[in-house]
Amino acid sequence: MATKVIMPKQGLQMTEGTILQWLLSEGDRVEEGQSLFEIETDKVSIEIEAPATGTLLKIVVPEGDTVPITELVAIIGEEGEDILSLLGESSTETETSSKDEQDHAKDEVRTNGDEMDYDVVIIGGGPGGYTAAIYAAKKKLKVAIVEKDIFGGTCLNRGCIPTKTLINSATFLNDAKNSREFGIDLSGVSVNWDNVQKNKSNVVKKLRSGVQGLIKGNKVTVYNGEGTLQDKNTISIVGENKEIIKAKNIIIATGSEPSVIPFPGYDLEGVIYSDEALDLKEIPSSMVIVGGGVIGVELAYVYNSFGTDVTILEMMPDILPREDKEIVSELKKSFEKKNIKIKGSTKLTHIERNDKGLQVYHESEEEKGIISAQKVLVAIGRNAITSALGGVSITMNRGKIEVDNYLRTNIPNIYAIGDVTGKAMLAHVASHQGIKAVENICGETSKMDYSIVPSCIYTHPEIASVGLNEEDAITRYGNVKIGKFPFSASGKAMTAGENAGFVKIIADEKWNEIVGVHIIGPHATELIAEGALAIKLQCTVEELADTIHAHPTLSESIMEASLDVIGSAIHKL
Q1: pLDDT at 44
Q2: 420 lies in the same domain as 543
Q3: Out of 460, 523, 549, 551, which one is annotated catalytic?
Q4: Cα 461 to Cα 331: distance, rounded to the nearest angstrom
Q5: 19: domain CATH number?
Q6: I need a labelling partner for 288 at 20 to 30 A (CA). Which of 301, 361, 461, 479 fits?
Q7: Antiparallel, parallel or unpaired: β 143-147 and 45-49
């Protein structure tokens, strides 16, 4: 089917663009993602990529013409296709077809005329899978979802939600300990660990029940069992009974599991992984965490708050290696005050057990050492779960399913989303991928953009970032501009006693366009949404600063950081 090429919106204020140059001619073959034409706006000249693969059938707008955004500029398709309707005209066949005939034709496409049971079947009921199922149902597709365990996946049951519930309990405890600062004298504050765990379980159960209610309410058929592909349209389900179902399209959303590396001592009692770390029966007196990524630092904060002596071992020179270095430095200062010990560039060699507990042997260029601990948490990453592929030849890349930017595998009707793709192992990415996959199943050309993915780390202080860090921005743009604003100068942060941290905004030198936002401080994970929107809309620091922010709010710090990029911050010397 022919694809429209439109004038894209390339900035917040853009209403039109000028075609500077066509990089291909009518009749040329074009690949999806290949540069097709160059436009000029009031801010930038940019090459626009082709939204589909095919032949450039028609150039509608010649070089030099200026057209409004979303207006048709070209058509890509296959030779011989009828493109009159896309040009605002109709063929005789289209004019004479009745509405009933068109509706019937849609139904035939949906069922594929091949005894398919469903338009789309999703294997996996995590945040990506259940989102895709609900969205597909709202698109009037006939949908089924296959889940071998419980709905909500790792995020809801063994990841995001239980971790954040424990973090919230830890934060309540820390607030209670510091209440005298606000004129509130509390005594006898203690931890009831059984009730902390009970609260966590109750939250998880309620949210899981909510997901199941949404699936049922949207009339998605549920199959409880393990789904395995038999061919590109057939799924075998093994549960209480064995069933075979057929689908026109399939979405694989099977998620990931903690990486287990069989180092000496990995299977000793007391060596745990993230799943077990959330369900401990008692608070350990000491814990070594192997891995200083997101999972490692979040659980370090949790257990340190509850009184555990925590040490982090990280093979890389620093914890959170993907985050901006200034942000990491600020978190390390906070961890040092909490007596969380961090050993960077340090390798775990093996673990032994004696009458003093677990003995963790480690080494770096500077030293070899042993740390005694009651528990050792191994948090060194996650592996994709790909058992659902069966014997179907789907292209893999380092143990992950390879997909294009439209979530398609090498088999056109099979899509993959979430952790199993290895693109970005985040629940919100999986959910967004699920929506995009369904849109593409419905005939749209909906492309994933991984350059604007918020990263959130729920330590104290919180960390959130989106876009490029300073090092990557310099690599890409050469010279960049930086603005920072400390929460110690924020009235709202001061009233909450949360004056640690800062907002950092990175902009390109030529246009002052925002390319990175990094926050460490109170409610950073909520504030980052403004940064994500700013980057998506190609906002300049002037445009963000010119947006009125309510007072007193933490969001004013984003406005002030924007002003600081151009040397105009009001509440900063």
Answers
A1: 67
A2: no
A3: 551
A4: 7
A5: 2.40.50.100
A6: 461
A7: unpaired
